[in-house]
Fold:
Amino acid sequence: MSSPPVTSGSAAPAPSTEFSLRRIAVPAFGPSLLFGLGEGAILPIVPLMARDLGASVSMAAFVVTLIGLGSLLNNIPASFITMRWGERWAIVAAGLWSALGMLLCVLTPGLVPFAVGCFMVGMSQAVYNLARQSYLTEAVPAAYRARALSTLGGVMRIGMFIGPFLAAAAVHAFGLSAAFGVGIAGVLAAAAVGARVPDLVHSVAPGQAPTAPVTLKRILAEHRRVFLTIGLGVLLVSAVRASRQAVIPLWAEHLALAPAVASLIYGVAGGVEMLLFYPAGRVMDLKGRRWVAVPSMLMIGVAMLLMPLTGGFVTLLMAATAIGIGNGIGSGLIMTLGADHAPRHGRAYFLGVWRFLSDVGGSCGPALLSVLVAGVSLAGGIAVTGLMALLAAGLLGRWIPPRDSEPVDKRG
Structure:
């Protein structure tokens, strides 16, 4: 959707010609919808397939964890792949690698090959997500950056929402492994669309000397202050977001609500999130990143602190909806902050570290919740997660630059 250029004091000067997200919708967001659909199709089936292959309940949970672990451990290698091949071919490679991992899950009998295939799917996530973020950071004017990146995240969520329904139909007709057929079709379609994405043109201004090669070590040294300030806030945001996925169904079970009711509450919260991604990006572009970052974490934090006080369906639904609204208005926040601070040269290295911090938070948040639940109580664990959200709000409010001094367009 097109919007008027940002007025004076914006994060970047308005582009000389009107820019429209609608014009780049298919090449920019089509692969994300398809990739999300492909991965969403297999995620609910992975633990069931693992159990069919003889895994215990704990082992099946570990196999699911391997997808996230594959993404976490491959963020830095993904930056090398993107720097070497470029964003376009990194997107294609990610789709092919994910398809190979899914094929391994289906065609090779045994729990170990199945686990390896799931790890490969996680690896492809890291490459794909970094390449898409890097591509849009370069291709979209800074005045529209948050809208583009929040839409990217929103479209991915829509794909992951649709995927399980398509997989359910396939499983009903052909059995569990058919879900992987849907997944393979989705990620291969994403690779095919990605192959048609225009290559980025990196121009050098007349009279400007070519830049020296950039290394990961240099990026870490030159941007260590950003990683240790805003990056810490991003880590906490990811930890809170990942924990919220477990908090709602666990507290619903604590209240002895039926599984169908718990699913309804979770679904309503997720539906609210999907409605807010574009408004969130628009606010970030027009008012500044703080206007979304701080309210998002404050709303989630307060809702988390109030959740242990809920006693039934209505009150829990209210708390879960507040969490959904808070998470929805924060759509694209982490990607936008990374894009704002990423340098023009060596962007993939920077974003690889940025996504690593985000994934560390996403992995540690549920682990910390588990420890707190085991050692204290479920209510205590939820309350600590809420306090983490409030701390994230404070850190981001302190370290995100005000609108007038947000990073400018670094495309060169």
User: Anything to note?
Assistant: The two ends are 25 Å apart (CA to CA). DSSP finds 17 helices and no strands in the chain. The mean pLDDT is 86.
